[in-house]
Amino acid sequence: MAELFEYKCPNCGGSVEFDSSAQKMKCPYCDSEFDVEALKSMDERLDETEPDLFSWDENSNSQWEEADASQMNVFVCKSCGGEIVVDENTAATACPYCDNPVVLAGRLSQTLKPDFVIPFKLDKNQAKDALKKYTKNRKFAPNLFKTQNKLDEIKGLYVPFWLFDSNANAAVSYNATRTTTWRDKNYRYTKTDHYDVFRSGTMRFENIPVDGSTKMPDELMESIEPFNFSEAVDFQTAYLSGYLADKYDVSMENSIGRANERIKTSCEDALENTVSGYESVMVKSSSVQTSDGVAKYALYPVWIIHTLYKGEKLTFALNGQTGKITGNIPVSKAKLFGLFAGITAIGTPILYFVGRFLGII
Prior knowledge:
With about 350 residues, the protein is of the alpha+beta class. About 20% of the residues lie in helices and about 35% in strands. It is built from eight helices and 16 strands. The protein has helices at about 40-45, 65-70, 125-135, 145-150, 220-225, 250-270, 335-340, 350-360, and strands at about 5, 15-20, 25, 35, 70-75, 85, 90-95, 100-105, 115, 150-185, 190-210, 235, 245, 280-310, 310-320, 325. The strands form three sheets. Strands 1, 7, 8, 9, 10, 11, 12, 13, 14, 15 and 16 form an eleven-stranded mixed beta sheet that branches. A three-stranded antiparallel beta sheet has the order 2-3-4, with no helix packed on it. It has a two-stranded antiparallel sheet with strand order 5-6. Strand 14 and strand 15 (about 310-320) form a beta hairpin. Helix 7 runs antiparallel to helix 8. The chain is globular.
């Protein structure tokens, strides 16, 4: 069964959490600090923990649907006795009654145990400041957005990632063109030459990240890359204390396709960068073969921030290591028109085209 872990302060008995500023475990009550390595012995129990096995009374008058029963789990908080209800993929959370951080150790046992973790470097206040700076610098956001956009929820989450290492042999054929123009007193001439261009090479890829959680859109997670893997450490549950964490629900096998796409795109882009002297270059055909592929399992730090603006919930994601942030911000049509009005003297068709492209005309 999954076991509920709470890291207790030996001085005052309070629940200790991982402090991103000190990179140590810290008690918020007496300010005692502890090295993460000092708690390593608790992780040794993970490998001995059996996978979760739950059964439900089918004779109950009000029965769970089979799918719901397998996804809803109940634990008892060791600090206050309150019930903690989580889904099947939650690996770390907090008690809804006393707010003490807990780690569901059995969720990270055996084949589910991560190989690495990148600890949070930015705390909650730094995440809030990053959001304020990000929204303040959006020139085309409505003025009211900057004053009425209210913080609704912020949570630090360790997101599961599969990291792929691989060698790749790539060969790409391109269609390229080069144009020459000249004129005499009567005519202007244009000649377009077409070329077949070929490039090939061998490349090495390391730690290609693929989001292993269905809760997180791949595009959102990729938009806050890169993560610096050189700061990754061997996994210990202590780093999860004080944060939320999910185990993967997208298997390594089901993540390979995404990794292959990223490798193929990277190979094509790298080889295309060696093609110069042409006015246009288009991929005609490409072939990529990988070898010596290895996958690792890691948890990466992400701040998920929800805000409310005019009744609409907006979501932002912040890289908890580097501070890179992304999110959808409303655009003021009036400000865009003001910008484009300044270039109408150069050409009204430009304003019309850009307005149509942005959907504001």
